[in-house]
Amino acid sequence: MAHVIFYEKPGCAGNARQKALLVASGHEVEARNLLTEPWSMSSLRPYFGAKPVPEWFNASSPRIKSGEIDPDKVTPQQALVMMIVDPVLIRRPLMRIGDHCEAGFDSTAVDAWIGLKRTDETVSDVCVRSIANDTV
């Protein structure tokens, strides 16, 4: 069993499914509000590891979907500043167990990291509302 610090957007159906899967898998989830956390560049950066900058972003964010921000043209420093100012841009959830941090919910990667109960339902970091309505 792992103690997962789970930064979510409150009310997000996808985050609710992710947390439920973690709990069903025997993990303890400490949910925190991604949008109100006082992020700094040094506190946010570890969640992205070696991922390319475009993978740091929430593809369902209105600013990404509208084309206002092109994640392919943003430096790591610019991305962090944008995300601190507008946390909706952050790919979610952010998860931390001990010193290990991750952004997004790739169930295969999470299973390899801490173990997940098998389920017939696909649980990922793709916004459920985005799939249903093509909105955030």
Textual characterization of the structure:
This protein is α+β, with helices and mostly antiparallel strands. It has a single domain (3-133), classed as 3-Layer(aba) Sandwich (Glutaredoxin). It has 6 helices and 4 strands, in the order βαβαααββαα. It has a 4-stranded mixed beta sheet with strand order 2-1-3-4, with helices on one face. The longest helix has 12 residues, at 13-24. Mean pLDDT is 90; it is low at 130-136.
Give me the secondary-structure topology.
Layout (H helix, E strand, L loop, with lengths): L2 E6 L4 H12 L3 E6 L7 H4 L17 H4 L10 H10 L8 E4 L2 E4 L3 H8 L13 H6 L3
Parallel strand pairs: 1-2
Antiparallel strand pairs: 1-3, 3-4
Structural key phrases:
136 residues; alpha+beta; Glutaredoxin; four-stranded mixed β-sheet; globular; disordered C terminus
